[in-house]
Predict the structure.
Amino acid sequence: MLPVLADSNILLRIAQPSHVEHLVALGALDKLSQRNFDLCVATQNLVEFWAVATRPIESRGLGMSPAKARDEMLKLRSIFICSTER
């Protein structure tokens, strides 16, 4: 299988069901998965996700509590292979 590195924006979109691009991001990941690509993230992607997820909404973040952001990161880790695991 060939690895595909997901951009941090993909991670953010799939964590926001109300975002206009949520279904687009999910669809893209689904198509890649169906074509037997390994969906990967780098540690840097997770750091960037955390920074935006926990930033207040009025500062262009998602406004998640640290506990909610942690839960979302655990979901992401169940979907993606972390580059440190390869």
